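Support reply, case 0932

Customer input (verbatim):
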Amino acid sequence: MRAASRMAGVSVITVMKLLVDAGCAAATFHDRTMRNLKCRRVQVDEIWSFVGKKEKNVPAEQKGRGVGDCWTWTAIDAETKLVPSWLLGSRDAGTATEFMQDLASRISTRIQLTSDGHKAYLVAVEDAFGSEVDCSMLVKMYGNEKPGEARYSPAVCTGCKKTEINGNPDPKHVSTSYVERQNLPMRMGMRRFTRLTNAFSKKVENLGHAVALYFFHYNFCRKHTTLGKTPAEAAGLIPEPASLGDLVDMLN
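Our regenerated output:
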């Protein structure tokens, strides 16, 4: 934001206000457009970030006040690469239920849903979809954590276990590859998600606005390499790619 303020010759407060206004417009457009989706296979995951300080450094008097670890829950359509739902919150059963209910409200077809082994999904999926879903978990097993500087490298995956939870999921499509791959452009496209830097969010509201802007650009503006079109185009939601100028027009 400070780089943008220097380039435009305006106050960083002005840039912040634009972020808030554009983030609200992007979230509203997302909520209005992502309805009656015809998805077939959906993958879900959570990506970690933090607000203000990491959870272990949060003093007792600041707990529960939007400071500390923050998880962004995401869902992706394995065919169109559309992200129909995302939610910021804790990695607990309450947030899982809210996330799944939001996802279910946007999809009009029976889906095959794949998640990781997070137990909060067990109750959340049943509460949101009932029996109208084919659900499974993909639990990955990892080797021992590496000592020293290598501890920042990902652990080696030693195997996977597929567990059927509900319905009749097709074992060939039990995968979280697409939603986990989505974590990479999120960390590269949003400075607030970059690890081991001082670029973290200071307010959870501003993190939400940044995520809303990111997914507006991802779903509606940026052509997916393997599709040759935006995910929203592939899902039949828009006839042609949108632009950030379209988002600016929503502010007027």
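We compared this against your earlier run and they match. Two observations from our side: The mean pLDDT is 92. Residues 187 and 195 are 8 Å apart (CA to CA). Please reopen the case if you see a mismatch on your end.
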